[in-house]
Amino acid sequence: MTETQGTLTPVLTANWADDRSWTLSSYAARGGYDALDKALGMSPDEVITMVKDSGLRGRGGAGFPTGMKWSFIPQDNPNPKYLVVNADESEPGTCKDIPLMMASPHTLVEGVIISSYAIRANRAFIYVRGEVLHVVRRLQAAVAEAYAAGHLGTDIHGSGYDLDLVIHAGAGAYICGEETALLDSLEGRRGQPRLRPPFPAVAGLYASPTVINNAESIASVPSIVANGAEWFAGMGTEKSNGFGIFSLSGHVNRPGQYEAPLGITLRQLLELAGGVRVAPTGQARELKFWTPGGSSTPLFTAEHLDVPLDFESVGAAGSMLGTRALQIFDETVCVVRAVLRWTEFYKHESCGKCTPCREGTWWLVQVLTRLEKGQGSPEDLDLLLDQCDNILGRSFCALGDGATSPITSSIKYFRDEYLAHLEQGGCPFDPARSTLFEEAMA
Amino acid sequence: MSAANDQHGITDATRAELREIAARYPQARSGLLPMLHLVQSVEGRVTPEGIQACADILGLTEAEVSGVATFYTMYKRRPVGDYLVGVCTNTLCAVMGGDAIFDRLKEHLEVGNDETTADGSITLEHVECNAACDYAPVVMVNWEFVDNQTPQSAVELVDDLRNGVERHSTRGPRLCTWREAERVLAGFPDGLADEGPSAGPASLVGLSIAHENDWKAPSGD
């Protein structure tokens, strides 16, 4: 434990380049399912304590301590307990769980078994978004292999513990990433969020005690059990322990997945990624704005390059760590166009349950559309902020809050660019310059 | 030629499979989403007959099933072509070229959003973020990834699909039909899980940099 730790720390991604990494034989060759044996030799409460001590916090965006969530399950409740994995990865910019489940579905399956054992669940579900066919295939195959090998089913590894796991494909609804909407969807209903309390830990799936965790959170559990809570807590920052997958996309030379301790900065990651992409003319291009954790997290700019990417530091700088979905936009991109497109997404994905979000996102699109066309007035910016004020904190769930993030943050940093649209009677940018194939289009 | 217009109807075999899906869950209604995927694989869309069959099996009204089916984007009320081609036009893909790709395909195929070509082979739509931003701009065919597209490569893709030329996902198997894909989503595997690579190049970028620098996580217990 004393050797120095690399700038990148592949754990979840470590086996992704292995031959047929998705198969049980490949996973087992690296010691896969040994952590399950170790966990089954512990008491369920010892596993919960270990995950608590590791400091693992939810990797789906909110950052709630995973072990604490598990400990909220009332074990004296007579109903069956359930584990549900949120693999409905749909937040714009977020692209970590999909490659994880495609390359190493057994990491997630082993995590599901250990986590279910800890909370005394005999049924578990992986709710994966439906729009990723090959990932669904790999998950189905991994579950079948795990059953055949005795990792799932009855009397797992001779422990007397039973678990059944179902792969459940969703049907295209961003809102189902919200945990209570996901539960309604898994019950065969429209995916709309539920009023809390009661929280899922008390009344979740079928009104029974339910733990619902993000796929990356659950996939991190086998490594914690195998290597110990201290090992995990030794990485990252004081309050944001461990490693996570950082997803770089957009105008960078090497977009992709970078697994690193929490607290790494975008400056460090960009250096590894070869910097902001260069124009076909060879001219350097500048970073303009970026999302630290998906489109629902307020935009950052070049002034935030050195913000440590951990829950506390990103929060203190005015945004959220979210899902570490680092979407990089260079100087060729019109921020108004970008924000309008995200807002259209939130309008489309609003479930319609509450008025502030259902009506509010519709009106946001109206005002942004006319601004983007250069047809509004400067007062429209105040109108937008007023609309955001009526959505943020007044919506039923976080979708409405998230919809306001790109708008308020872009007006904060790029008010002049909105006004330029009005002055010029339209967008001052050439969209062709932002594309990957700008040379071919020119 | 087109599977889209070739409806088979809900047979007893389909009803048996619908019941099999419902039986996977502690409460049968949980099976409704995969059951609707199966209806689409059989009918080419969510039909009134399919809704009726789901309602009968689950003890729901048709209105309750319709209420669910109309909520989710993947359920289609009009016939879908053999290949559902979805162009990501969420912000990042749009900016990187998704808008240009979508415009070019609309023009080339002479269809608008959510419309099917006259020969019934291709349904074109724009899709929201499909969790492959490091491969932008992304096109989905029957929910398989076709990564790093350009307007030209997307035109070649749809032309090949219409002409029966075998095409593969960039991270998966030979592209199957939309109905075949829907059957897998209903929970009936097609045996193709072992096709394709472990991961695409972008997924492995950080891992290879770590290898080059001999960077690792600390060793554990």
Automatic annotation (TrEMBL), chain A:
This is NADH-quinone oxidoreductase subunit F. It is an enzyme of class 7 (translocase). PANTHER family: NADH DEHYDROGENASE [UBIQUINONE] FLAVOPROTEIN 1, MITOCHONDRIAL (PTHR11780:SF10), NADH-UBIQUINONE OXIDOREDUCTASE FLAVOPROTEIN 1 NDUFV1 (PTHR11780). PROSITE patterns: COMPLEX1_51K_1 (PS00644), COMPLEX1_51K_2 (PS00645). Belongs to the complex I 51 kDa subunit family. It holds the Pfam family Complex1_51K. It catalyses: a quinone + NADH + 5 H(+)(in) = a quinol + NAD(+) + 4 H(+)(out). NDH-1 shuttles electrons from NADH, via FMN and iron-sulfur (Fe-S) centers, to quinones in the respiratory chain. Its EC number is 7.1.1.-. Residues 336-381 form the NADH-ubiquinone oxidoreductase 51kDa subunit iron-sulphur binding domain. The keyword NAD applies. The keyword 4Fe-4S applies. Keywords: 4Fe-4S, Flavoprotein, FMN, Iron, Iron-sulfur, Metal-binding, NAD, Quinone, Translocase. Its cofactor is [4Fe-4S] cluster; FMN. The gene is nuoF.
UniProtKB/TrEMBL annotation, chain B:
CDD domains: TRX_Fd_NuoE. Its cofactor is [2Fe-2S] cluster. The keyword Iron applies. Gene3D superfamilies: Glutaredoxin, NADH-quinone oxidoreductase subunit E. Transmembrane segments: none annotated. NCBIfam families: nuoE_fam, PRK07539.1-1. This is NADH-quinone oxidoreductase subunit NuoE. It comes from Nocardioides panacihumi.
